[in-house]
Design brief:
heterodimer, A: mainly alpha, B: mainly alpha, 13 helices, flat
Chain lengths: ~280, ~300
């Protein structure tokens, strides 16, 4: 029952951290808005009111319309679906690769460990942004490739963290006991190691999501990410920049949404880290 | 120390070789040739073009050809700009990107280290909270948003700085350098604050104070040397990030640097240019990582003595 008390403890600490709770609240709100976008968005993301063109915020269009007469609020809501989806799915990909890599390297140790971690060291030193761009150019700009490419880049730190944790665990009695009882490697990972390193994994995953979203925004901004008529927040910012001289609201509102989301994720991630690991919360 | 240096160099060579090979064959997978673009060319012309660029040889021959050129520093001709070589384009873009990156790093170091060190010394006062809040903003506002916002404020509304260009109008280097530098200033501020806090609690700092050194002497001579090691180790990976940042900043401000060439090459499917710049960027990043690791090792007395 020690496990559950760690989590209830952490949850208690988390609820007392106001910045983290605020971040968590914003995130939940955003996820609900994104999921319910078709129901709550006032217009479709591709509906054009050609008579309107770009118009400033009004009672009909709360955040105004873009150059093609599309409602900006609706586009931000639909954009949230893509941006959050990329954030979560690509982080998931990174999680699966990083955790498996780290557990295997840490648990087996020796030569396997040094080869696997040397690979991580080498990959760390390479310009991955360029490889993502390369992949997008060669294989076309499709959403699933984007998930995979970003995920394939972000797993390195996760692998290092997990490996460190596993090395700390693998000589403890309960692992030795399990080994003596002849537990298979796979159930050793799943039943004995994984539950004990969930904390650091959760923290790092939360902090990876904003990085992934930044990366997606960056690619979309350069025109190499999400393609029209789909829109993520990155593409909305890109469109906003193109017309910011006359229609500044097209840059400002998507920009605010994106920034607030990143703030929320960072605050929540920091709060989670402090809650799960009170030792480091001091600095 | 020297043995570490050579070990790292020997590791870097096969890595760069692998990068070059993988990139080469990835690009061969790309659909469409470089010449089947906008205007249809007659089969005869296409054949001649392919012959001129050695594209009708087998992949393997082309690969060997390219790699032997690479050893001599020849990255081949650009497919989109006939008559210009990739090496030539890199050498025109590189000084501009270097200058931009240099100013950005300078701004980041000055702003970041000063505010981080002060924040650590004045812990839990407003001199700590305000810079750290600004640093959080710097981390959460991406470059591709920060740049346009600065343009909107200083270029369009206040009309005090040029909105684009590089070296053509007075002051047109300020906004790009600030845009690129700000995010790094934020990271460096957080790193130097953390590093300094750790060092300031150590015994040797107490000793230095006890023997009557002035506070500024303690901070500058004793604490900063160790406290800034995280910042130095960060600089290597930061170069990779600066590169990505330069793609965005050079696009926003229409700066004719390497980053913009790369993005344009990606759009134009100028495969030789993409290949050449990818190899070049990788070499640069591997080199700077090596440099910053060595600097961090050298700053840390423990690892300096042991090797």
């Amino acid at each position: 029952m020690k496990n559950s008390s760690l989590w209830t403890d952490a949850f208690y600490r988390l609820t007392r951290n106001r910045a983290a709770m605020f971040g968590g609240f914003i995130l939940i709100l955003l996820i609900i808005c994104a999921a319910a976008a078709p129901a709550i968005a006032p217009y479709s993301y591709s509906y054009q009111d050609l008579n309107l063109g770009a118009s400033p915020p009004s009672s009909d269009h709360l955040l105004g319309t873009d150059v093609l007469g599309r409602d900006l609020l609706s586009r931000i809501l639909y954009g949230a679906r893509i941006s959050l989806l990329v954030g979560f799915v690509a982080t998931g990909v990174a999680l699966v690769i990083g955790v498996s890599w780290g557990i295997i390297a840490g648990y087996f140790g020796g030569r396997i460990d040094s080869i696997m971690m040397r690979i991580v060291d080498v990959l760390y030193g390479l310009p991955f942004i360029i490889f993502i761009i390369l992949l997008m150019v060669i294989f076309g700009r499709n959403l699933w490739l984007l998930f995979g490419a970003i995920g394939a880049v972000e797993w390195l730190t996760m692998a290092r963290i997990v490996r460190g944790q596993v090395i700390g665990l693998k000589n403890q009695e309960f692992v030795l006991a399990a080994k003596a009882m002849g537990v298979s490697n796979f159930s050793m990972f799943r039943r004995h190691l994984l539950p004990n390193i969930l904390g650091p994994i959760a923290v790092y995953a939360t902090l990876t999501i904003p990085q992934v979203m930044l990366l997606e925004g960056f690619l979309s901004f350069l025109g190499l990410g999400i393609q029209p008529p789909m829109s993520s927040w990155g593409t909305l910012i890109k469109d906003g920049v193109e017309s910011m001289e006359e229609y500044s609201w097209l840059l400002v509102y998507p920009g605010i949404t994106f920034t607030v989301t990143l703030f929320a994720l960072n605050f929540f991630g920091d709060g989670l880290r402090d809650a799960l690991d009170p030792k480091t919360s001091d600095n | 120390m020297i043995s570490i240096f050579f070990k790292r160099i020997f590791l870097a060579i096969p890595v760069l070789f692998a990068v070059a090979s993988i990139t080469f064959f990835l690009i061969k997978l790309a659909p469409g040739g470089p010449f089947d673009a906008d205007r249809a060319v007659s089969p005869q012309v296409l054949k001649n073009l392919n012959e001129a660029y050695n594209l009708d040889a087998s992949n393997w021959e082309q690969y060997l050809d390219y790699m032997s050129g690479l050893l001599k520093g020849d990255l081949g001709p650009s497919f989109r700009f006939p008559g210009r070589s990739v090496s030539e384009m890199i050498s025109t873009g590189l000084p501009v990107t270097f200058e931009l990156a240099f100013y950005a790093i300078l701004i980041a170091l000055i702003m970041g280290v000063i505010s981080g060190v002060i924040a650590a010394l004045k812990r839990n006062t407003y001199l700590d909270f305000i810079p750290m809040a600004i640093a959080m903003i710097g981390i959460c506002v991406p470059t591709f948003l920060m740049g346009p916002l600065l343009v909107l404020i200083f270029g369009i509304n206040l009309e005090i700085l040029p909105v684009s260009g590089w070296g053509q109008l007075p002051g047109d280097k300020i906004l790009p350098s600030l845009t690129l530098g700000f995010a790094y200033a934020a990271y460096i501020a957080r790193l130097s604050r953390g590093g300094m806090l750790e060092i300031l609690n150590q015994d040797f700092i107490r000793t230095a104070r006890a023997k009557g050194l002035t506070e500024s002497m303690v901070v500058i001579k004793h604490a900063m040397q160790g406290g800034l090691i995280p910042v130095v180790s960060f600089l290597g990976p930061a170069i990779a990030g600066l590169l990505a940042g330069s793609f965005v900043v050079e696009t926003i401000f229409q700066i004719p640097g390497l980053g913009r060439f790369y993005v344009e090459a990606a759009f134009n499917r100028d495969y030789t240019m993409i290949l050449g710049t990818t190899i070049f960027f990788s070499a640069m990043i591997v080199f700077f990582n090596l440099l910053s690791d060595l600097a961090a090792l050298w700053l840390n007395p423990r690892s300096r003595d042991s090797s």
